[in-house]
Design a protein that fits this description.
Helices cover 53% and strands 12% of the residues. By secondary structure, it is of the alpha+beta class. It has a single domain, classed as NMB0513-like, CATH 1.10.3510. A four-stranded antiparallel sheet has the order 1-4-2-3. A hairpin with a 7-residue loop joins strand 2 and strand 3.
Length: 110
């Protein structure tokens, strides 16, 4: 079980990060690991990851891709919250581990 105060602090950090810069998946994965500690199953890790991503979405951060464009360096996915969570889960599950930055997407508050 995750300590709710620790979760709140981690989420606030991630929200600030996404509003200030592009938030890489490795930072979100690191937050999951920090909250759960060692030994958590992949299913538990994925569940917490999706909870965090959903809360980031509620706070205005969107998943997307970095581009080569200087005009639009971040391109948010055209997906609502449920679609984004489904896509992230589908891309993470085959690896049986949480991804690094750039493996699935980045997050930003456009």
């Amino acid at each position: 079980m995750v300590n709710q105060e620790a979760y709140r602090r981690a989420l606030e950090y991630l929200i600030r990060y996404a509003h200030d810069d592009w938030l890489g998946f490795s930072v979100v994965s690191g937050a999951v690991g920090g909250l759960l500690g060692r030994g958590a199953s992949f299913e538990v890790q994925l569940g917490l990851l999706l909870r965090i991503v959903g809360d980031l979405h509620d706070a205005g951060a969107r998943p997307g891709d970095l581009t080569e464009s200087t005009r639009e360096p971040f391109l948010p996915w055209r997906a609502d919250k449920a679609e984004a969570l489904t896509r992230i889960a589908a891309e993470v599950e085959p690896h049986s581990r949480l991804p690094d930055s750039g493996d699935v997407c980045w997050f930003a508050a456009p």
